[in-house]
Amino acid sequence: MYIKKSLQFVLALLLSLVLLISPACTSTSTAPSMVQSYVIADPTGDWGYPSPYLRYARGPGYIRSSFIFDTLIWRDKSNFTPALAKEWSYDEAENAYTFKLQENAVWHDGTPFTAEDVAFTVEYLKKHPDPFVTLVGPSGISRAEVVDDHTVKLYLESKYAPFLYEVAGTMVILPEHIWKSVDNPMSFDSPETVIGTGPYMLVDYNKAQGTYLYKSYDNYYQGKPIADQIVFVKVSDEMVTSALIQGEVNAASILPEMVDNMKASDFTVISCPYGWCAKLTINHKKEPLNDKRFRQAMAYAIDRQSMVDITQRGHAIPGSQGLLPPNNRWYNPNIEQYNYDPDKVRQLLGELGYELNNDGYLSKDNKILELELITQTAYGFKDVGQFIKDNLEDVGIKTNLIVLEGKSLDAKVETWDFDISIYGHGGLYEPSILPKIITGQGFNSARYTSNDRLNRVLEDQLHEMDPDARLQMVQGAQALYAEDIPAITLYYPDWYWAHDGKIDIYYPDEGVASGIPIPLNKSAFVGK
Amino acid sequence: MLTRQNLITYLVALFIILTLNFFLPRMMPGNPIIAIYGDVAVVQMSPELEAELTERFSLDQSLGNQFISYWTALFQGDLGYSYAYNAPVTEVIFGRLPWTLLLAGLALIVSTTLGILLGIESGWRRGRRLDRSLLSGMVAISGFPDFLLGLLLLLLFAVNLQLLPLFGAENAYSGLSGFQRLMDIAKHLLLPLVTLVLARVGGDYLLTRNAMIGELKEPYILLARAKGLKQGTIRYRHAGRNSLLPIMTRTSILLGLMVTGVLFVEVVFSYPGIGFTTYEALTYRDYPLLQGLLLVSTFCVLTANFIADLLYSRIDPRVNYAH
């Protein structure tokens, strides 16, 4: 009886094993074999189905759809390059851009691409907003005019300087013949959603395993792509260097500590043009932080070079107090950087009436000066918080350090329930980011609107179509911001990718599309 | 033992837990819309977009309305829409669940079986060499946290010896099918499985060993020996079987924790599953997904308890008389 029972048990076990594996088997029904494929590793894996409305609203989500879909113009290392538009011109009087479109561009299903598709996309995106492109408001397009089959004219809502960068270079064009009957883009997930004009077509997307398979579209109007296949796989940060060395993966982002290792193993290591910063956000509505001299004192008190050496182990550069990093072409090198100077701290705080008491803390009217610094564990900000606390206490500012989980911290900052806190954000390429993070109302922003001159110049530079004039304004904005210093830029971290050289991938100077700091520019895969 | 009272107890427990499942995610601080899109600093959410998203996910409805639609949807088998993953919750969970079941389920079966067998043998030979070495070995291994074990195994077998894969559940797009594919999946499964088994087996082993030692003192074992029964029969059919009760309890508890218990192993081995999904849902405050995941967990726990209840009376009939 026991033998029979245990046999039953074993059989049941085998059966359940088969049942368990079979769903996994059916998830990739047509799995082609590897031929000339380029494998890219990513620690997260799943960034959504790479169609315009189902991709995740984050850089890597956009990148995965950018291989399939084209924009009007694109960008290589430093310049705008033709994409679906081969030429473009701006008419100042009409405030309109005219795009002459590629004549031999074809959708992946064989339908020819025309100006109708562009006009349709503009109207569709206004009805169904895409997180990456805002078509209403100052950056908006008031109307799209089809001049002929291969010419389209876009009339802007207002004179908007970053239009080419933010809209023409980011907005993917949708095929009218497929999307005109789609009323609810969020639930449209048939294979037709990934019909684009781009150099690659999607073959498979496995959500659970976080893998993507693309095959090249040989009729691409800019030429046959170099790699027959692109594969994205999910690999943890710890294993990615081994995966590169063992040849399982061709390209991946690597930790700064691994750079020398990778170079020694004959890999090409590329570094990201700084576009992300860590910031000390200040509640400038509260005393004594509402006085700019106090904020300036804090800036002098924090030794940012030392912070980089210690908390970032040298893999970063100190932040510029005008926000934009030194490699940025809009950078103003002539602003006050508040280099570490404890004497200046004493002087400024003395002006405000603070004196050191017997315990070594600054106090005024018998009240000790005390600040609450909230930080989060992400991005290694706990160490940064500890460092800032040490710096501030060295000059006598008593600081209480509280570590919160990311979203709890956001909630406190959003409601102004904080003194100082540590934040990080990207997008430091195009100056259109400046109003968003200085006067904007998002919690990533300094939310500083008390300086009228600064407000005005931030708004004006968005509408200044002459690049030289705009440069003056942007540099002026940086100077004003540095003077008032509503938030302190701490550092810009180093980011690296390593690849085996099969394809010459590179970081565009100002990010991919609207500033995505990932070196997966499809131009590299078409040999441009 | 299945009685009407038992069943009602389970249903009431289910109701309370499902209600808590609804409220708990909403008690966490932070607006979910900002939590999702906040990182994309370049994207300044236009008021129109924010309004559309709020409306789509019913975040502006009163708590009462949300509660009612939660229950209606549950009965229709619709677990809602995950805004972090841009897909229905059922699709997100059940797309990944098979992998977790495969890994965690198999690990549970193997570690329990191994723990029981080793515990029985060890208890039988108490104080002798095999017992001493097994005991010290097991205690040593159970001191390691699962992710550390995983990393060590990965470093040894995948990086240094290059015998086993570095990541994934199978070779992506390798074109394998049938038996070859099963072997590929098995190869990828081996290290995570061994990690989880090593992390868990210690507990089962110690429980069984202790229960065994207690059982062997009982008079009926002396009788069995006197009757001249084979050693194996005494060890397994008599003493071993009666030592299973504490293991039953532990296994049913572990079954319930199966879903979240694999998180670290998933991260270290880049293995698909719902452990990491749960962590991400928490980070993004994705309420529908969190509710769906908690529901799956709840279901696992209650089912495990139910099965344990049924099996108790089979293993030890004395519990029937305890009521």
What does this structure look like?
The complex is a heterodimer of chains A (528) and B (323). Chain A is an alpha+beta fold and 528 residues long. Helix content of chain A is 31%, strand content 21%. Chain A has 16 helices and 22 strands. Chain A has a six-stranded mixed beta sheet. Chain A has a four-stranded mixed beta sheet with strand order 1-10-9-8, with no helix packed on it. In chain A, helix 8 runs antiparallel to helix 10 and helix 14 packs antiparallel against helix 15. The longest helix of chain A is centred in the N-terminal third of the chain and has 26 residues. With 323 residues, chain B is mainly α. Chain B is 75% helix and 1% strand. Chain B is built from 14 helices and two strands; from the N terminus they run H-H-H-H-E-E-H-H-H-H-H-H-H-H-H-H. Chain B has a two-stranded antiparallel sheet. The longest helix of chain B has 39 residues. Chain B starts with a helix and ends in an 8-residue tail after the last helix. About 2% of the residues of chain B have low confidence. At the A-B interface, helix 1, strand 10, helix 6, helix 12 and helix 13 of A face helix 2, helix 3, helix 5, helix 7 and helix 8 of B.
